[in-house]
Amino acid sequence: MTCSxxxxxxxxxxxxxxxxxxxxEGSTWGHVPGVAYGYVVESxxxxxHHGALVEFSCRETYTLIGPRSITCDSxxxxxxPQCVATNELKKCKSxxxxxxxxxxxxxxxxxxxxxxxxxxxxxxxSGRWDPEITCTGKLLFIMFLRIYVVxx
Length: 152
Fold this sequence. Notes:
This protein is mostly beta strands. It has two domains: 9-86, Complement Module, domain 1 (Ribbon); 89-146, Complement Module, domain 1 (Ribbon). It has strands spanning 9-10, 13-14, 19-20, 38-43, 48-49, 53-58, 62-65, 69-73, 76-77, 82-85, 92-93, 102-103, 107-113, 119-125, 128-130, 139-146. The chain is elongated, with a radius of gyration of 21 Å. InterPro entries: ComplSys_Reg/VirEntry_Med, Sushi/SCR/CCP_sf, Sushi_SCR_CCP_dom.
């Protein structure tokens, strides 16, 4: 990225807002970074100023991992999502689960640690728990919820 990521007040007037762009030889300002096997669903028109939002989706047979949208923040784009082949998504494992189950991607887990009264939540994202399971020893209580996303 090549551009200023600051604005200043000069003699009572603000300089122009930062623009977000990925700059490569021969490109013009205002491009949205690409996502392999993905496409832009919704976006404001270029040039992209601070606060601009770009929403992504994945081709059929691919699953979006990460944030669904990116934002122009002070001249830089927030981290991009990834599109991963659905048949390549990893399952989550945990030695803390009573039966050492293998859990599918996008499964939400509500759990309680032994000796604690509060419940915690975690979701399986392509082979890792987010947030990480923090109990020591076995879990006292587990409830799984499968999350389905339907677009109309």
